[in-house]
Amino acid sequence: MARTLQRSHPLQSYESAFAALPEGISVKAEPYLSMTDLRLPEDVDGPLGKALPREPGGWVSTADGLIVWLGPDEWLVLSGSRGPGELEADLRDLARPNQGSAVDVSAQRISLRVRGRHARDLLSGGCSIDLHPSVFQNGRSAQTTLGLTGVVLLALGADGDDFRILVRSSFAGYLAEWLVDAATEYR
């Protein structure tokens, strides 16, 4: 009888450490998201009923996820409800006739949510970009380093204290350790 491998989240063991963070900082490992890297010529309209974000460092929401600008002809499409194969196939149908490509990268990154009144300060301590609310506000994203780890950082919500971090699965444990350690400053 063949055994089935159970999928576990790389940050499952950090749940108690995240729960013990000081007041004003919340870190939560989000459920897996389907992610497809989409490459299209700049003159092609967007998928999923949304215009592609054309401004560097922008993102737009869709009915079940986000489309994040990664480069002049590259976007990361995230979905919380569609499977990776389904998302990739739908985007490939758009990309193929436009000399583009769509590649499933769901296993590459996981998502962390950092919230709270000290969230921006916590992230600023390990990030070299300007995270001031007048610059990095809702609808902005950046490919940067956080605690020496390459991430895609997104500003969510109008209140300015809600962020999503997309980090490579293999660096997720390191980043979780960094976040927990850096948060001790706010005890």
Number of strands: 10
Overall helicity = 10-25%
Can you tell me the CATH topology of the largest domain? Gyrase A, domain 2
Rg, alpha carbons: 17 Å
Q: What topology, given as strand order, has the largest sheet?
A: 1-7-10-9-8
CATH class of the largest domain: Alpha Beta
**Span from first to last CA?**
51 Å
Number of domains: 2
* Backbone shape: globular
**What is the CATH homology-level superfamily of the largest domain?**
Probable tRNA modification gtpase trme, domain 1
Strand proportion: 25-35%
Largest sheet: 5 strands, antiparallel
Provide the low-confidence segments as ranges.
Answer: none
What quaternary form is this? Answer: single chain
Helix and strand pattern = HEEEEEHEEHEEEH
Mean pLDDT: 91
DSSP summary: helix tally = 4
The CATH level-2 architecture of the largest domain is identified as: 2-Layer Sandwich
Query: What structural category do the secondary elements indicate?
Result: alpha+beta
